[in-house]
Write a structure and sequence with these properties.
Keywords: Heme, Iron, Metal-binding, Signal. GO terms for molecular function: cytochrome-c peroxidase activity; electron transfer activity; heme binding; metal ion binding. This is Cytochrome C. With about 550 residues, the chain is an alpha+beta fold. It contains 13 helices and 20 strands. The protein has a four-stranded antiparallel β-sheet. Strand 4 and strand 5 form a beta hairpin. The protein is globular and about 95 Å long. The two termini are about 35 Å apart.
Amino acid sequence: MRATIRLAATGLAAAIAASLAGCGGGTTDSGAASTRPAAGGPSPASATAAAADTGAETNVVTTTVSRAALGAPAPAAPLPQPNLDGASLTVSRAGYIDMANPFFTPMGNGRSCASCHSENAGWSVTPSGLAQRFEQSQGADPVFRLVDGANSPTAAVATLDQKRIAYSMLLTKGLIRVGMAMPANAEFTLLRTDDPYGFASARELSLFRRPLPSANLAFISSVMWDGRESPSAATGVNCLLNARPAQCYASIDSGLLSQATSAVRGHAEAARELSAADQRAIVDFESGLYAAQSTSNAAGSLLANGAGGGPQALAGTAFYFGINDLEAGDYRTQAPFDRNVMTMFGVWRNLAAPPAPPPPPPLPGQRNPPPAPAQPAPASAADLARASIARGEALFNNRPFNITQVAGFPQRPGQVQPQRGSCASCHSAPNTGSHSVPLLLAIGVADGRFRTPDMPLYTLRNNATGETVDITDPGQAMLTGRWRDIGKMKVPVLRNLSARAPYFHNGSQPDLQGVVRFYDRRFQIGLTPQEMADLGAFLKAL
């Protein structure tokens, strides 16, 4: 292990971080630590100052600097991580990616945080990367553990073929099994279980979920898909505006600290708790990561012609509890909700402008008709792709549709669904696509009608009314026991999407065009083929 020293985020630390601002690096999807340094973000001092100016929620951070870096030559530039749509890039608030951080330290069963959160998989995992790890290790990589990597904790794994079967949900969809007991005193009862792996029961349901990215945490308002690490709090700064009675939530920082310990004890099966110092180091590390698509195969650099894509711009994006809230407007500025949430690519809107119209016909008696206007040069393939991304951004912000049968969607006083909205109604945090106050929704992804044969199905019955529902994941209801919370999951951050397919909490859509098709059919938006292509191009550029 290389020697390190810790410096508070003062001017000295900022100067050292600035000297490292050109370095790059990360992890591979094998979860092994890279030997290269990595960085490319703002210095801790500048990031903290920017957060103070914008109101962005941030943590006090420390900077870990290799002794060799003090006086060493400037490190290499950050390394883009290729994906099917181009490449993504990660920058760090610390100035580089500290591979000596306990985030990368194997614990318990050999797993580290990086086992399920690797840089070249968008700080999550991907089926292709997992398949490579499986073949290289013959199924022995630490990610392949019965506790939650297998379809059932009792699956046979003695032979390689048995392992392929046992870990099929991880290998094909990048899904981790979350085992949860039916909540005590719930408003519903488990009526039937259809588990293709023969394990799930009321004692422990098998819920298959994608690992959420451990980057871009500066833009979240709840921790975990079901919000279980963001409990209610009696008081605090994260309180819903005008809520009666008061409704407050624990800080994101406290939720991440708790989640780090829960992961080490659960996923890594460690015999003892993380130390407070390791907890703090892990959370400071992951809270300082900003990851986004940086280049597009079709459009080239996502900064070209003044566009605002890529992680450097993302790292400077303002975020705070209640920014641009759909219901109450902006908590700090009191401005009403602005549906123009995404504003990165508007400068590209006219790059594929149509040719100039022909001149008007000559007037009677006019001897010499006016000359034809000069025709613009044909748009390049890159400009056509950029214009498509810009059109997709405009669709995301402004294309209206009826929001129907979405449990948890905010209701305006006196108004009932359907309500008119757009993608920006739920993904309302500027240029990040998260929601700035906790919002858990049931959009139908877990409905029984969309169940695939590899997914367990649960039939729940309302104790009061006798109503039944078929669901593959009860979501937030597993915590609250409330019927109205069945199927609810958090609104995730939308940046760096191309790096981390498949999509939705259950990996049900293999690509972003599938995500667009799902929403188009689910809400009967009526997108044309061109609009679907444009919206997909925009999501790929995030």
